[in-house]
Amino acid sequence: MSLPPCPQCASEYTYEDGGQYICPECAHEWNETESAADLAAQVRDANGAALQNGDTVILIKDLKVKGSSMTIKQGTKVK
Question: Residues in domain Protein YjdM C-terminal (predicted)?
Answer without folding.
Answer: 43-79
